[in-house]
Specification:
- There is one protein chain.
- Helix 11 packs parallel to helix 12.
- By secondary structure, the protein is an alpha/beta fold.
- The protein is built from 16 helices and 19 strands.
- It folds into two domains: 254 residues, nicotinate phosphoribosyltransferase (Alpha-Beta Barrel); 171 residues, TIM Barrel (Alpha-Beta Barrel).
- The protein starts with 11 loop residues before the first helix and ends with a helix.
Length: 443
């Protein structure tokens, strides 16, 4: 069994609450919604991601005999309750924003409608999946905006916080617009294009740098991208120029060079001059090493001749914003709207829909959050993706990438920039405000 799909991959209090629901006979339908409360400073938008893994988890939700036996051994749960868990499956409905949709605070991106035990139990894993991929997709989208039409490759597996994080970061960055990944398993599992060059160790294992280049070229004749900063970047570029005619005679053409240290923009300019002077105008320059959206902005503002980039640590850990202030909260139970009123953590009650309006140029203009059934001008963003525990339709990763690209293209121009973003208007509709007042009055 894949531990990532285990029903026990949850917090203890989910199970203790389920025991309480069981003992008190609470089995009515509940509505939970996932949303982000607020953005961190410097961020203007987020991109929804992780829905595919959520639906996969819900479809397979069950407790194995081994898991039930272990729960029984803890002495925390009654025999009758464990017998109910044995038959528990997810039979509810899910509405969600499609992956790749740009969204803003207080907008639900996923709604679960199911008997309360089911909807409650899945909280932890759903937050876990939606939070991480949304975090990474949002970070990657900022980089895509700073480097349009550039080759962007996820290099972050080795610095990711665990194996699943590395896989899902490859997926999230790809759907947000990256070109591919170095993560081989992500290539097999998700069909993401694979990219790779060579490591400094390969060069160091040879007594001669040129010999290392030659050996690698013969090992990968259709993908000759040579790492040139192990010793002296510009000297290595000259060696590449000298080696190229010999390889050409053997039917091998150098595709690119990679720079992984120092002032990347400055080295790229010098290397470009060396390559061009040596007749290697076709050889691309690929850069890597502690790259984020701010470095991309500055690099291309200075017209650095970089064609592609390998981006790892700062994206796969979302280094400047390593978490989202997100929540999955009960909004309705047994047909009655519910509202959390905790200080600083109030929620808007009831089942909700988000409508998006666009300006004359087709750019996002404003959003309205309202109760379901209160039709507003604009495009409704939450759609049905699961009925009675079964997926309605599965979007391909190619479709999701196209949807994400369309969303980024429709961002207001100020949100394309990295300076303190302007305040995109998200309105709380009058119908939703009235419902909150009714709930507060106990009506």
């Amino acid at each position: 069994m894949n531990p990532a799909n285990s029903a026990l991959l949850t917090d203890l209090y989910q199970l203790t609450m389920l025991q309480g629901y069981h003992d008190s006979g609470r089995e009515e339908v509940a509505v939970f919604e996932f949303f982000v409360r607020k953005l961190r400073p410097g961020r203007g938008f987020l991109m929804a991601a992780g829905l595919e893994q959520v639906l996969e988890f819900l479809e397979g939700l069950h407790f194995s005999s081994e898991e039930l036996a272990w729960l029984a051994s803890t002495g925390r749960f009654s025999r009758e309750f464990l017998a109910r868990l044995e038959t528990l499956r997810f039979t509810g409905d899910v509405h969600a924003m499609p992956e790749g949709t740009v969204f803003f605070p207080n907008e639900p991106i996923l709604r679960v409608t199911a008997p309360i035990a089911q909807a409650q139990l899945v909280e932890t894993r759903l937050i876990n999946l939606l939070h991480f991929q949304t975090l990474i997709a949002s970070k990657a989208a900022r980089m895509v905006l700073m480097a349009p039409d550039k080759l962007l490759v996820d290099f972050g597996l080795r610095r990711a916080h665990g194996a699943e994080a590395g896989l899902l970061a490859a997926r999230a960055s790809y759907l947000a617009g990256f070109t591919g990944t170095s993560n081989v398993l992500a290539g097999m599992q998700f069909g993401i294009p694979l990219f790779g060059t060579m490591a400094h160790s390969f060069v160091q294992a040879h007594s001669d740098e040129t010999l290392a280049f030659e050996h690698f070229a013969h090992a990968q004749p259709d993908n000759v991208v040579l790492l040139i900063d192990t010793y002296d970047t510009e000297a290595a570029a000259s060696k590449v120029v000298a080696l190229a005619p010999q390889l050409e005679r053997q039917g091998i053409r150098i595709k690119g060079v990679r720079i992984d240290s120092g002032d990347l923009a400055d080295h790229a300019r010098k290397v470009r001059q060396i390559l061009d002077a040596g007749g290697l105008q076709h050889v691309t320059i690929f850069a890597s090493g502690d790259i984020d959206e701010y470095l991309l902005r500055d690099m291309f503002a200075a017209n650095a001749p970089v064609d592609g980039l390998g981006i790892g640590t700062r994206m796969d850990t979302s280094s400047d914003m390593p978490y989202l202030d997100c929540a999955y909260k009960l909004q309705e139970y047994a047909g009655t709207a519910r509202r959390k009123r905790s200080e600083g953590k109030q929620t808007w009650p009831g089942r909700k829909q988000v409508y998006r309006s666009y300006d004359a140029a087709g750019r996002m203009a404003s959003d309205v959050v309202t109760v379901e059934g209160d039709a507003q001008p604009g495009e409704p963003l939450l759609i049905a993706v699961m009925r009675a525990g079964q997926r309605i339709a599965a979007a391909t990763l190619v479709d999701i990438r196209s949807h994400a690209a369309a969303n980024l293209a429709r961002l207001p121009e100020p949100l394309h920039r990295l300076q303190e973003p302007y305040d995109y208007r998200v309105e709380i509709a009058a119908a939703l405000r009235r419902l909150a007042e009714q709930v507060d009055r106990g009506v």
